[in-house]
Amino acid sequence: MATSLATILNWFKINAIPTEAQFKATFTSFRHKLNKVPVGDIEGIDELIAQKADNDKLNSHIEDDSRHISAEFIETLQSKVTVFGNWFQLIKHPSNDDVLKANAIEVGDIIMNGFRDNQTFWKCAVCRFTIDVDLDESWTVLDSIDEMEINSSDSSESLQDTEGEFF
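User: That's the sequence. What structure does it adopt?
Assistant: Structure tokens below.
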């Protein structure tokens, strides 16, 4: 049977001498590391499971090449740029196809795998504004390029949010 923490703490105050029964009640009130927690005892487990991605839908998404940028497409569009004084890999948005701007950052372009500063590594960020690309406000930082859904035939609309602004 569980004993409240307040009760247990009262048994162990200065000059108190806990009894054998109190010691036993103390230790049996807690779970031991070697005892597994029954799934039914996990608070909110049903809500967490309900939020889990359906396995079939997830696998279907993973296998759908039209939902991802191909490696070949990335190779044809990438170069290196300097942002925040550090090198980043640049991936041009498909609509940004001006050859004269091949190494310039444009709205919708992606920078990857570079350090924002000495402690902050950016895996992926999408350019929102080009007024000053060295400002954090110019970028939407993502955990990975997988957060974006881009078809290889997409135009710039694929990178726009509901207000028509680029991510």
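Residues 5-40 form one domain.
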